[in-house]
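Sequence and structure are kept together here, with a separate record for every protein. An example record follows, reproduced without changes.
>
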Amino acid sequence: MSPPGVCWVNGKKPVCQALFKQGGKEIKRRETRFVVHGLEAGNHSRGGPLDTLNEVLFVPGITVNGVHPSMRPLKEKEHEQVVSKLCKYIKDVSVLLDRDDGSYTFMLHRDRVFYAKASLAKHAATITRKHLLSFGTCIGRFSKTGKFRIHVTALDFLAPYAKHRVWVKTPAEQQFLYGQHVLKSGLARISEDTPQYSGVVVMNMNDVPIGFGVAAKSTLQTKNTDPMTIVVFHQADLGEYIRSEDSLI
């Protein structure tokens, strides 16, 4: 059999021919190989002759669903945990999965949950666990006890669809970015009808999302509470990109 071709070389996509013996008869088929950052990601061969190519890809080391053993879709309980956590901040997770630019999915890799386009996840599946560091966006991870913790990296996806928001004053903004809770004295505004212990996205006075947390008080309760009372429990903030850089990805 002739050596397989390389899928991308200098911006081009050549396809090499290979000879397969089947029942004493030689059949020509196309075979390609993906190279990602200089790493071969396995042979990809289409199962039909050159004139009648079908759409089935055979990738050595890949499971039946086309997913590498090092990464996989979320199990039912894992998916429920992720959806439950996200639904504390947004109404419906379907707005994240069924988007105008394509279908998106959640994948698990090394205890981390990645949010990525379905087509990108398929390409990432061809890379071995040793060489695959990240793909899409890591929105959180599962702890050793099996609990899911959402990361600040999910903020860009939560903010546009947030059910409840709070706005903090400029002095309180810096304190929140250092990981501190929001006090009543630092609260500028809160969404109407925000229930107690509901998820909230924290905004600064320029309407820029800077993190998210849990409402310690409802909208009604915050009106008559003491200035030094905590009104929002800190969950995540943009300062973590500096403080916790190594653990986010």
